[in-house]
Amino acid sequence: MHVIQMMANNPSVPYFKWFAEEVHKHPEMKFTFVAMCPERPAMLDEMKERGCDCVWIKYDAAERKSGMTKSFFALLKLFKKLKPDVVHTHLFDDSFPGLLAAKMAGVNKRVITKQDTTFHWYYAPKWVWADKFNNRNATHLIAVTEENKQFILECERAEPKKIRLAHNGFPFDLMTRQSEDVKQKYIEKYDLQNKIVVGTVSRLIEWKGYLDIINAAERLVVKYPQIHFLFIGEGVQKKALEKAIADKRLQNHITLTDWIDRADIPSLYGIMDVYAHAARFEPFGFVIIEAMFNAVPVVSTATGVAKDAITHKENGYLVSYENIEQLADGIEYVIENDGKAIGRKGKEKALQEYQFENMFNNYKKIYFEENF
Q: Are the C-beta atoms of 316 and 176 separated by less than 8 Å?
């Protein structure tokens, strides 16, 4: 079974490395990885070290139309040469040329993981037709959550028989490598001694709901003057968030960390008392599972994997979109009701269902599925 996995616009894809390391346990499978990037990624050499082939297709998202046209012909040539059993894409920019090229090259099984579902629907509706086009060219559509599945069915009108549910999964050990020295470094840097720390890890963009968290913070500081919020990430909304924080005089209660080294993120989870997530819609929500792996109690909008993984008030707390009162109530609930116990239950759930092995095995079932 020869599987080609593809991803665009990312010169370093952790999933590729995880699959390359796992595939050695499955001698019946061979993986080739295709990276669509403007420059040759160092990942090509990393994959070779892991015993897997990695192919670079030159592609620049800044010149999308011409880039997709050129990459389509390069992919068509590659697929005809390699004759894979499966072509598996993940994002729009690799799916649009990749699935069409695979179909024209006669690849029988063409799989797309719907990682960026809803983006066009909400932010570029004139491109929704292209999502539907990808669905038609695929033989299998992987929904990463139940909400994701319903969206594909109801909004993209995909064929139900094509859809399979397979949650994303992550290596537990990698996601939980905390360092006491790193934790202490950030406690001192942000003056977090004896504070109730509420953290959020994501891009600073509108639909992640940071303004909702700021509004909830305004309520919470009245009852908990020792509370402190960490917004971990960077993005185009930074100036607007800084203004909102200043307008509400919350500078002593909210810190925007900007970029943080990825290796330090687990240690930052280690100093959080609550993880707050206020996104309006998530196809999945990687950071929710990462927080749960680290036993941080999660307060989240009922979206993406939060809706699947969290049992309200048992292993986390679910709130409605754009509901400031519920968001503040959820954070208060965790503070007042043994947050550590809630976090431990969340960790148990994450370990049961969201480890990388589970995802690999679910994908393997799809790859070897005979009737499709």
A: no
Q: In this structure, are 321 and 219 located in the same domain? A: yes
How many domains does the chain divide into? Answer: 2
Instruction: Write down the residue that tokens 């990462």 correspond to.
Output: 290
C-alpha distances (whole Å) from 132 to each of 124, 136, 171 are 14, 6, 32
- 4, β-bridge pairs: 32, 87
Are residues 335 and 213 located together in one domain of the fold? yes
Do 180 and 152 belong together in one domain? no
The candidate with the shortest Cα–Cα distance to 207, out of 141, 286, 131, 301, is 301
DSSP string, 170-210: B-HHHHT---HHHHHHHHHHTT-TT-EEEEEES---GGG-H
Query: Which residues span the domain enclosing 213?
Result: 173-353
Residues 92 and 183 in one domain: no
pLDDT level of residue 43 (50, 70, 90 thresholds) = confident
DSSP string, 127-155: GHHHHHHHHHH-SEEEESSHHHHHHHHHT
- Let me know if 249 is exposed, middle or buried by CB neighbors in 10 A (0-12, 13-18, 19+): exposed
CB 119, CB 94: distance < 8 Å: no
Residue 92 corresponds to which amino acid? F
What is 252-293 written as a DSSP string? TTEEEEE---GGGHHHHHTT-SEEEE--S--SS-HHHHHHHH
Q: Measured between alpha carbons, how far is 97 from 248 in angstroms, rounded to an integer?
A: 47
Residue 40 vs residues 32, 49, 52, 227: alpha-carbon distances, Å:
16, 16, 17, 45
Q: How many Å separate Cα 49 from the centre of its chain?
A: 26
Task: Identify whether residues 53 and 113 lie together within a single domain.
Answer: yes
- The Cα–Cα gap between 75 and 69 comes to 10
Mark whether 312 and 363 lie in a shared domain: no
Same domain? For 188 and 224 the reply is yes
Residues 324, 212, single domain; the answer is: yes
- Give the CATH number for residue 75: 3.40.50.2000
pTM: 0.90
d(CA 70, CA 75): 9
pLDDT tens-digit profile of 244-288?
999 999 999 999 999 999 999 999 999 999 999 999 888 899 999
